[in-house]
Here is the input.
Amino acid sequence: MTNPRGYILKGRIIDGTLDDPIEQGALVMEGERIGWVGEVRALPQKYLDSQLEIIDLPDRSILPGLVDGHTHISFGESRSEEENALYTPVEFRTAKAIYYAKKVLQAGVTSAFDAATTYNIAQAVRDAIDTGMFEGPRFTVSGKQLTNHQGLEDSFPNGMEFPPGQSAVLVKNRDDLVEAIRYQVKDEVDAIKVSGSNDNLITPDALGSSAFTYEEFRIMAEETHRLGRICSVHARSRDSVLLSARAGFDNIFHASFIDDEGIEACIKNNCVITPTLTLLVNILEAKQSLAGASSASAFQAELEAASENLRRAYDAGIPMIAGSESGWSPVPYGQWHAREMEIFTTHLGLTPLQAIHANTLAATRLFPRYGHEIGKLEAGRLGDVLVVPGDPTKDIRILQRPRSFDFIFKGGRPIDRAPDQPRQRKWYEKTKIFLDGLYEFDEEKGLGVVVR
Ligand SMILES: [Zn+2]
Here is the structure.
């Protein structure tokens, strides 16, 4: 069904703000943009007299396409740091990223923030989609993240060269900070991301301190803003949150161990938080495939601390943005994008409407590209619109079943919903493990036994 003139959709309107839904609502789609939104009885006659296709949607909800605040389109569902940084050739990674971008769109995500890329793949995917070559969400891209030896993504031993496939630039001194930002901007990023702390995923007991000093965060925030970009930071520890917020960062990813001082700094400097708790929850659920050196208890402890601390931060007035962290193997593309909203209700106590806001209009603050044209059902904005069964303000999990959606519109056009063939993995994508354990010889039995 494609009508070049447009559509009148009638159903429950959930517009992306915190306003109550309009039960008997209508939305007019004219070309690639929204022409009108409101109560169906107020619908101007001129739309009814035009050639628009009228679609009546009883017990359906109409809401903005999801705006995912944290994805990694180039990570290819990697199962380890090694797989992500070392093995797959850049050309094949790029082809995979384009393949996965369509899956992300088919999950109802019409815009996504890419929160670190290997090579410059995310920029290429963004531009390939924006110039009409492939189907996918509208991406805002933060390029490679700036890290130092204490930050996430300086993953390998000192005796090794820093790998070119690592999703980071290694900065070694203060001059490097400025140089790296200028280099990223020349590579056409929309935002800068800094790796402000390490991560339980990589290093046990890594959550104690900040990778950068306050002075260093300030240099990065100032140069980023001078060049007209927004700055984000990966910051799980208390100190990294506090120092980056004080230094003027716009967005903090995770903020699990934020305390009252950190909350105060965020409020003073207008800083938002994108927790991406989905990654922690999924890893805990998928205990079998736990990555890295840390145990489940470290993730459990972080989730518990984050739930309490982020609730306090939200109550204090810091906006929360929903991001899925899709791209790693615990969060495959196209499957978990709406889960963060459910976790916001179960772990942080948000209402479903607040959670939807966090995954639509609130998230647009991170999107310098298209930000004012997406995330809300409003005349003049782009026609990125979902039509879903039932009422997600009563059951937020409805949004986790995109195959049940009636329509996913991007730019006023219903997207192709047909699933692609599952892809096969190439041998070079794998983590190169001979055997996940030791094949020990049992002398008594005279047999080999795998010991993990
Ligand atoms: Zn991430």
Remarks:
- The domain at 66-365 is CATH 3.20.20.140 (TIM Barrel).
- Residues 70, 72, 115, 325 surround zinc ion (CB under 6 Å).
- The chain has two domains: 1-64+375-420, 66-365.
